[in-house]
Write a structure and sequence with these properties.
Blueprint: H1 2-11, H2 13-51, E1 57-59, H3 68-76, E2 80-86, E3 88-90, E4 93-94, E5 100-101, E6 104-107, E7 118-122, E8 130-134, E9 146-150, E10 156-166, E11 178-180, H4 182-188, E12 196-201, H5 207-218, E13 222-224, H6 225-272, H7 274-282, H8 287-323, H9 335-361, H10 365-369, H11 380-401, H12 405-425, H13 427-441, H14 445-456, H15 458-496, E14 501-505, H16 516-521, E15 526-538, E16 544-550, E17 558-562, E18 571-575, H17 576-582, E19 589-590, E20 593-600, E21 612-615, H18 619-622, E22 629-637, H19 640-651, E23 657-661, H20 662-705, H21 707-715, H22 720-758, H23 770-797, H24 800-804
Parallel strand pairs: 6-11, 8-10, 16-21, 18-20
Antiparallel strand pairs: 1-12, 1-13, 2-12, 3-6, 4-5, 7-10, 8-11, 9-10, 14-22, 14-23, 15-16, 15-22, 17-20, 18-21, 19-20
């Protein structure tokens, strides 16, 4: 039987190669998803190692406790080779466009071994008039050119750019993007203290012993460099957990899509070998021998293809990271990735071959040696399963719409999965009518033949379209949801901000001048202004919360209950979160303030409303610290385009003031969402590629299966071009079936999730991006002929005589 298996592998290299391609692509996606998941952690570890390189001891203390005197004492401790203080201060930069940009500065470490950055170009600053910038931040600033940096009071400091530096992506670690001399840092922030003192030990001095000596000498906490790295990693890791789960979810999607493609390919392959298996049984082979032989053959194919897919996954992960714009590409190859990729490839391939092989061994040898019967149609059992899943989707969706957001979200997910399952189960039921309809709508004999071929085996057609359905369901759902969130935030801002511009401070620690609102109000074209100041407020028995003092009526959050035209003295409007936490409602009193409204706000730069709103006259009475932060001035003008230059001239006397239009705020809010969506499109594009590879594989195997039929059609007058056109039409019909099903399920699921989320006041609306979805449809229609190119070319080049003599 082993010789028979080896002979079979040698006799059917093309058919097995096509199946191996399906396995390779599936494993590529799975391995790529795992590598991307591990790359998140690898990038974080690299950033932490870079931040703590050369550090043998880290000294931290409460704010203000680490100063120059502490640093001098640390340098005197025996065993200390070098010690450097690290301080980061806000230092906005005036960009080439003349507008302030957020930036942070740190002083250059005298000890090169304790610098968490590498020189990229030029040199580091040597004196007080020089500066080095992080490579990406330096875009637009020529080396040797001037750079204007603002201090915490708004004072301008002209410096010369002498170099750029690089460091790994900070992965949420923060850090400075400007390096200046110690003298310059003191000018930017005279009261700045060190957030950390890092120490390099002398040769032969252990980290633990030195940490203990420093702690004893300075009286402040000191830990080893290894402990500092571990703590930083533990503090930052939760920020990357969501992205890791994101990639893991796509690994699961890859498994499902790959399994469907591989199963379909081996079902066709084993079905084509029904006569061969029956002949082996006639000459003495047992059912178990045939079953084991097919499994052995599939295992060999799966193992070889899995290894190829593993390396393909590394390439796919590198490509996705490059598309996402990552400077450093991480390709960690862990034992888990290798084991999972090979196991999935081999097991899925073996299971894919086991099901049709088991079915083939149950057919009597004599029956199997006869001319194969036509493909069976979907039975009653499939109708029942599809109906039950559809009923489950409808009932779960109905209950979700009537439930709270937390409960409804889970039910909406159940409804989405059930709807997708119902669509896949009903695929063979609807495949025939759909392709027959398409065949009638598209003129020409090629379309008719393509529809006839696709309708001949609706199970195979539906299975080929199923992988595409799953991939496009995910894309349509994510795209529609992202567009809904973006549209919801945009609409919320339009409703909440009755202003054309906001003026904010580029330094959150430095509020805007109190007179700025009056200065802006005097600008020609300005019709109204309002101020907004955040502060820490005391609400008595209810506790301490971030409150917002407002003036004017340009802030208009969505009112859930009560009224909120314009707040006056003695009134307070509370946010939805505060109302849920305290039980306060319209008409209640808190600190002698009457609750006049409960609102729901859209978070946006310069328009944060905190937990409650009060009139500016009430701020002093409720304020705990006497300090305001995160303030803004809202501006309404006659003509935004015409009046903006006048506003910018008026604000030139306040360098820390940043003018932003409502459109710019919307763009700033939407940018992270679009980056995530682009990454999702890149990942799902791999799933769709696998789906079209499955279509190619199915068509190629069906060409081999219909060799005699194709030759007969050509003998009756069908040209090579006509035969290729028929296969292309069949591919297009399969793609249309998968695309329509995927978009329908994805959009319907997005509508349900939107309705559930909006019931809880979330800023999301159902607004399908028909333009982007149209791109998906166009891409599918373009990819379908490409998928059919190789099978059509092979069918057209086949010998007519050899085809007619095929069995």
């Amino acid at each position: 039987m082993l010789r028979t298996v080896l002979a079979g592998l040698k006799a059917r290299p093309l058919r097995l190669l096509l199946s191996a391609v399906a396995v390779t692509l599936g494993v590529t996606f799975v391995a790529g998803s795992f590598v991307l998941t591990d790359s998140v952690g690898a990038g974080l570890r690299e950033a932490v190692a870079f931040e703590t390189r050369g550090v043998d001891v880290s000294i931290t203390a409460k704010r203000g406790a680490l100063d120059d005197a502490t640093l001098a004492k640390a340098r005197q401790v025996p065993g200390v080779a070098a010690a450097e203080g690290r301080a980061t201060v806000g230092a906005p930069v005036i960009g080439p466009d003349g507008r302030p940009r957020d930036a942070a500065a740190t002083a250059l470490s005298a000890d090169e071994g304790l610098r968490p950055y590498d020189l990229a170009e030029g040199r580091f600053p040597h004196g007080p008039g020089e500066i080095a910038m992080e490579r990406n931040s330096a875009e637009g600033f020529p080396l040797g050119g001037p750079v204007t940096v603002l201090d915490e009071t708004g004072g301008r400091h002209p410096l010369t750019l002498v170099g750029t530096f690089s460091r790994p992506s900070d992965a949420g670690l923060g850090g400075a993007n400007l390096v200046v001399s110690q003298e310059t840092l003191r000018r930017l922030s005279p009261a700045a203290t060190f957030g950390e003192i890092v120490v390099r030990a002398a040769p032969g001095v252990g980290q633990a012993r030195l940490a203990a000596e420093l702690k004893k000498a300075l009286g402040v906490p000191a830990i080893t460099g290894k402990e500092a790295a571990a703590r930083l990693l533990a503090e930052t890791a939760p920020n990357t957990a969501g992205l890791a789960k994101f990639f893991t979810g796509f690994a699961v999607l890859a498994m499902v899509v790959a399994a469907m493609v591989i199963t379909n390919s081996f079902t066709i392959l084993v079905t084509q070998r029904a006569r061969e298996l029956a002949l082996l049984r006639c000459v003495g082979a047992g059912k178990r021998q045939l079953f084991v032989g097919v499994l052995a053959e599939a295992t060999v194919v799966g193992a070889i293809a899995s290894v190829a897919g593993l390396f393909g996954g590394l390439g796919a992960a590198a490509a996705v990271q490059a598309i996402a714009g990552q400077e450093t590409v991480h390709l960690p190859l862990t034992a888990r990735t290798v084991a999972a990729a090979v196991a999935i490839g081999v097991l899925v391939t073996a299971l894919a071959a086991a099901i049709p092989a088991w079915a083939a061994t149950r057919v009597a040898p004599v029956e199997a040696l006869r001319t194969p019967a036509g493909a069976t149609r979907a039975g009653r059992r499939r109708v029942i399963v599809a109906g039950l899943l559809l009923a489950a989707a409808a009932s779960s969706g109905t209950v979700a719409l009537r439930s709270s957001v937390d409960d409804g979200a889970g039910l909406a997910l159940v409804a989405m999965v059930a709807l997708l399952g119902a669509t896949l189960a009903a695929g063979p039921l609807i495949a025939g009518p759909v392709v027959r309809t398409l065949g009638r709508l598209v003129p020409g004999k090629a379309a008719g033949l393509g529809a006839l071929n696709a309708d001949r085996d609706p199970k195979r057609t539906a299975a080929s379209a199923a992988a595409l359905t799953i991939g496009l369901t995910v894309v349509a759902l994510a795209t529609t949801m992202a567009a809904g969130v973006e549209a919801g935030r945009s609409r919320g801002l339009d409703e909440q901000l009755a202003a054309d511009f906001t003026v904010t401070s580029v330094l959150t620690t430095r509020p805007l001048p109190a007179t700025l609102a009056g200065t802006v109000a005097a600008v020609p074209g300005v019709t109204a202004t309002a101020t907004r100041w955040s502060f820490s407020g005391d609400l008595g028995e209810y506790g301490k919360f971030q409150l917002t003092a407002v003036s004017g009526d340009l802030l208009r959050p969505k009112v859930l209950s009560g009224r909120l035209d314009r707040l006056g003295p003695g009134e307070i409007a509370i946010g939805k979160d505060l109302a849920e936490q305290t039980g306060l409602a319209v008409g209640d009193t808190v600190r002698s303030l009457r609750v006049v409204a409960v609102y729901d706000a859209v978070e946006a730069p310069g328009a944060d409303l905190g937990f409650a709103l009060v009139d500016v006259t009430e701020q002093r009475r409720l304020d705990l610290t006497g300090e305001t932060y995160d303030g803004s001035v809202l501006v309404k003008v006659t003509d935004p385009d015409r009046d903006r230059p006048a506003l910018e001239r008026a604000l030139s006397a306040s360098p820390l003031a940043k003018l932003s239009s409502v459109g710019e705020i919307k763009e700033e809010e939407a940018a992270p969402l679009r980056e995530t969506l682009n990454l999702l499109w890149a990942l799902t594009g791999l799933a769709v590629l696998i789906a079209f590879a499955g279509i190619t594989n199915t068509l190629s195997l069906s060409v081999l299966e219909r060799t005699r039929e194709s030759a007969l059609l050509r003998a009756l007058g069908l040209t090579r071009g006509g035969l290729g056109a028929a296969l292309t039409a069949e591919s297009v019909f399969v793609a249309v079936l998968g695309t329509v099903c995927g978009l329908s399920v994805g959009i319907a699921s997005a509508w349900l999730i939107t309705e559930v989320a909006s019931g809880g006041g979330e800023a999301i609306v159902f607004a399908p991006p028909w333009g982007r979805l149209g791109v998906l449809v166009a891409a599918a229609l373009v990819a379908a002929p490409l998928a059919a190119f190789v099978p059509a070319r092979r069918a057209g080049r086949a010998s007519l005589v050899a085809g007619l003599s095929a069995v």
